[in-house]
Amino acid sequence: MRIDLHTHSSVSDGTDSPATLVATAAAAGLDVVALTDHDTTAGWTAAAEARPAGLTIVPGMELSCRYFSSDGPPIAVHLLAYLFDPLHPAFAAERARLREERLSRGERIVTGLAADGYPVAWAQIVARSEGGVVGRPHIARALVEAGVVDSVDHAFATLLHHRSPYYAPKADTDVLDGIRLVRAAGGVPVFAHGLATSRGRVVGDDAIAAMTAAGLLGVEVDHPDHTPDQRAYLRALADGLGLIRTGSSDYHGTNKRTPIATCTTEPDQYEALLAAGTGVPVVTD
Ligand code: AMP
Ligand code: FE
Ligand code: FE
Ligand code: ZN
Is 135 in the pocket of ligand 1 (CB under 6 A)? Predict the structure, then answer.
């Protein structure tokens, strides 16, 4: 069994439509793929309708969160959520708030760039997102198309970096509240790419312990942004805390260079995740 539990489609910041994404997953030889767009479940139906026979789809999402530590500013953390009830009112309301937050924050970034003469327009970026969840990758593509930078990577390394003067933060969900919301909706919360230092500051073991106390059920161990040492460290930490270990590609289509199925989840860990999720079933034969 080949299992990839973290992918993004064009309803957030990937480039494959949900239908193309599930076809890509099957063509790559996956047996199981989770669709985990940022802060939305909008791709679930289209992915299910386009599901190739033999492929199992795990409905999921990646929630934008922050960890509030006692020392220093909040740390951005991403929380994967699987098999939750999309209609759970409090959780649905929080996702809607996050999407609004992304719009106001994206507009702030683009307004700053435009004020300094960069040829980007917020209205065009929103129109191009076709009502999906807007993120920095959309702004990056606009900068590429305007000829300001030569790649999405280059845009992130310069103008869109979290230390760039144009960067604007989002008021993301307190991760402990996020974990409780996912659990309340019958879902399985998994800490995404927890040690990926290329994305900014990362949390310490104390935070992972606090998240576990709040109901965290798993950690993403094998991820393209983790070094072998970080994977070994997280694996031991997960085993010590009794958490599920996942592995995944974090595929974003052509917005990132990582192919689908680059990293995968062990079948016994997948079975444990399935057993813990009660909000919706997987989509399967
Ligand atoms: P945002 O959620 O708007 O803050 O944007 C962050 C998103 O950009 C995350 O989903 C990342 O997967 C993506 N991202 C981060 N760094 C890069 C990069 N170098 N190239 C492409 N996408 C990136
Ligand atoms: Fe992303
Ligand atoms: Fe992420
Ligand atoms: Zn992701």
Answer: yes
Residues 75/201, Cβ–Cβ less than 8 Å: yes
Choice from 248, 256, 262 to test ligand 1 binding pocket (greatest atom count within 8 A of CB): 256
- How many CB atoms sit inside 10 A of residue 197's CB? 12
Closest protein CA for atom 5 of ligand 1: 136
Nearest ligand 1 atom, CA 76: 4
State the average pLDDT over residues 88-97. 98
261 and 192, same domain (yes or no): yes
Cα dihedral 41, 45, 46, 49 sign: positive
Does residue 106 have its Cβ closer than 6 Å to ligand 1?
A: no
Q: Which atom of ligand 1 is nearest to the CA of 102?
A: 3
CATH number assigned to the domain comprising residue 227: 3.20.20.140
Q: Whose CA is nearest to atom 16 of ligand 1?
A: 156
Answer whether 168's CB lies under 8 Å from 136's CB.
no
List, in order, residues 6 or more apart from 22 with CB less than 8 Å away: 33, 35, 47, 50, 51, 52, 55, 57
Average pLDDT score over residue span 121-130: 93
pTM, full prediction: 0.96
187 falls within a domain:
yes
β-strand partners of 271: none
